[in-house]
Records
---
Amino acid sequence: MKDFVLGVESTAHTFSASVVSSDGEILSNSKSVYKSPEGSGIHPFEASQSHLASAARVLADALHNSGIPQDEIRAVAYAMGPGLGPCLRVGAVAARTLALSLGVPLVPVNHAIGHIELGCLLTGAKDPIVLLVSGGHTMIISFSGGKWRILGESLDLTLGQLLDQFGRHHGFASPCGAAIEDAALKSVNYLKLPYSVKGNDVSFSGLLTASKALLDGGETFYDVAYSIQETAFAMVTEVTERALAFTSKKEVIIVGGVAANRRLGAMMTAMAKRHSSKLYMTPLEYSGDCGAQIAWTGWLAIERGIEIPIEDSKVRQSWRLDTVEIPWRS
Ligand code: AMP
Ligand code: MG
């Protein structure tokens, strides 16, 4: 007999809800995405108001589209963090309310671990080196000793922030990654930019400043978009390669919104091939933030008895994934 979990995601720009089954079928994945004004980033309060306005509809759609009767939902999972406080609180309130009204357990999920576990479910990756690249994260991760361990990370901006802040400087509205990818396809003229790898960590702030300066100095958006991608993607590919060589793992997976980028995928594929490893990419539809990452990880957790009393169900704006015990992996 199958179980069903409803998951609620609301860490940043996306409010999403999804129903998944215990055998990993995604039965629904409804979402509403807050759009920040042109030239500016996410305004946390305004994003939370947008989530508030769409929460009831998104939850109702997720339940309706799944075709699962409410009384068959075994648990409600929510993204407890990390993320923007006002946005997290909308998701937490919605999930608490639903769990109480359905009379089922509430399950806290770490958003970053949600990206990883959903990526593994959808690609079949078992024990990969993970490159998590999104608006909120840039990390190279590997599972060891009961936890996902961070082998390298960005010391300042995330890869998503780098692309979004560069795009906004040009006047685009966030998120800008897809528009930069399109622009980069129109150039092969590499302009020299700072390449900053420190140990197994990366730093993007100098790259952002230099890229903005090139634009301001009259270089074309196409050439700078191409050059920023080549530089930043080479940096994350280098540190992922080192992690792969060090651990001798045979799989690599890219998860998070930037996983949608084909140039990053091509660089990582060539790198994995050199190490006789297989590269997996999260399918486009599920690479960005979504309820399915929370629902699926919620199922893995509730199956191991992990739940949280409603009165303790806070949100955690900062919650590093390497502090979370993972009893469902060995
Ligand atoms: P997430 O936080 O996981 O929802 O990912 C959002 C981030 O992914 C934003 O910074 C987007 O700009 C970025 N993104 C989305 N599509 C692409 C793309 N095709 N290329 C690069 N970055 C992308
Ligand atoms: Mg994310």
Note: Residues 4-115+289-323 form a domain with the Nucleotidyltransferase; domain 5 fold (CATH 3.30.420.40).
---
Amino acid sequence: MKIIGLTGGIGSGKSTVSRFLDELGAVIIDADKVGHEAYKPDTEVWREVVASFGRQILTPSGDIDRKKLGEIVFGNSESLSRLNQIMHPRMYDMVKTQLEEYRRQGVDVVILEAPLLMEVDWAALVDEVWVTIAPQSTVLRRLKEYSGLSEQQSLARIRSQLSSAEREKHADVVINNDGDLNELKSKVDKLWQALALDT
Ligand code: ATP
């Protein structure tokens, strides 16, 4: 089984690449979804998050409100690292268990889509790291279109993340998402073909 870690900056095209790979037959693990799973109500992680950040981060039905939590931790490195210390070990274990299950099932290719793959040192879980990059002006335009973020909000998020140059240094494959969706699709098709020859 080949495990590819797929990462990249905000709005660089990770989810789109992941969707193309899914269509080609890869199995996808989405770290964001693992995170949501990890802090479902009444799990240990949920209890620790509520103990750390208070009940004001809950929705009326008792779920963790990601937007409220995000507002608390974004731009506050102490809170962010407290949250990461709660979340990441649990998420790591969940991903590991899931990978073992896929290996047992005889899956050929797994894509671990994780925005923070490099920051949380999940590289040990994967055989190769693929990184999506896109010019900043393109990312700003896409973010404005799909998330309604202002240029200033987008820039604050971009600056809070690793730079593309830093990600490229640790990448086995760089996917430059600087064209239209057809171009991106054909880049992914080529990578998939090379992978098929390799496995
Ligand atoms: P996030 O970090 O916010 O989850 P992401 O890296 O997963 O973002 P995507 O969700 O794949 O990025 O892409 C962001 C938006 O840009 C989406 O609406 C997607 O459809 C669009 N997009 C991605 N690549 C292209 C492209 N090459 N041409 C046009 N639109 C694109």
Note: The chain has a mean pLDDT of 94.
